[in-house]
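Re: Re: ligand-bound prediction request (bumping)

Still looking for help on this. To restate: I need the protein modeled with coproporphyrinogen III bound, output as structure tokens. Inputs repeated here so nobody has to scroll up.
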Amino acid sequence: MLATLKGEACQSPPFWLMRQAGRYLPEYRELRAKAGSFLDLCYNPEFATEVTLQPIRRYGMDAAILFSDILVVPHALGQPLDYLEGEGPKLDPVRSAGELKRLSTANFHDRLAPVYETVRRLSKALPPEVTLIGFAGSPWTVATYMVEGGGSKEFAHIKTWAYKDPVGFGALIDLLVDVTADYLIAQIDAGAETVQLFDSWAGVLPVGAFRRYVIEPTRRIVAKIKAKHPNTPVIGFPRGAGLLYEDYVTEAGVDAVGLDTTVPPVWAARNLQTRLPVQGNLDPILLVAGGEAQRKAVDEILEALAGRPFVFNLGHGITQQTPPEHVAALAKQIKAWPERG
Ligand code: CP3
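Reply:
Sorry for the wait, this slipped through. Here it is.
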């Protein structure tokens, strides 16, 4: 996995799956119930370590991703956060320069100490051939949850603020650039071998705002990480970037790029993979459907992208309804490549 991220090609590509630890696994549901709340699970190094390792034991992925959530960053800045059953995250929204003053970096690393401890434990527990991935949400995506107060369809509050008051909103993005870079550097110091920036809502912005709030903050975070850890690869995942994927890979400074489900693999081979390693992009719902549809789609992706620097993954996170045996079939097919599944 690390060699691939540094530009080497493997015949049989490395693989991991976004959200590979989670509710589709019965052993996750068991520990989640023991931990109490989802946040209790994220802040319990013993449980978070165990949950990270669960999918590796079952399926032998080439990489383990730290078990945590992108919203621990606003939580560590003092923004109240809760996860409601079936509704997702809820935060007390921050919608103006005045409300920004409620946030503070004073206890940031102390609050995240359990996450760093989880990374240290994982770094010891994992066999050397399994790469440990740290992660954070990108400033834009984290800001959508902070400003909207949770998930959103229209992103009306955050876009209105960004368009009407770019200076005030810019202060939130600047704050997130600084703390996100510090947070990722601390994960690398604790043993993360690569880091991924999840920009799940990159795709809702028009071009000017995409440059300002997706590409530019990513570029600044990557530069800060590289100043301290020049050899640690950074993976960017600008979900939904569409036609702007090319600008993102040439300008953001990332070492590898995650493709969302809608990017045609053959197009990515021609236009992105010639510049950097790519990762992706099976539709997670194909992993729910399984069978012939899944097998054929996996083959098409491998056909287009394997043999050059490529990490097999999904185009977005695994869903709760995924039958664990479909993941087993996927792992078997990737490991057998270039023999056809
Ligand atoms: O990939 C992994 O296995 C590592 C863990 C991980 C989680 N969230 C665990 C989680 C990672 C990398 C994330 C990233 C994340 N979190 C993103 C970016 C990727 C994406 O999916 O777009 C986003 C937007 C979030 C914010 C978030 N966290 C939402 C919207 C939700 C609710 C939706 C849901 O699936 O319940 C969460 C909760 C969450 N994060 C769960 C898990 C396993 C489910 C919580 C539970 O167990 O009750």
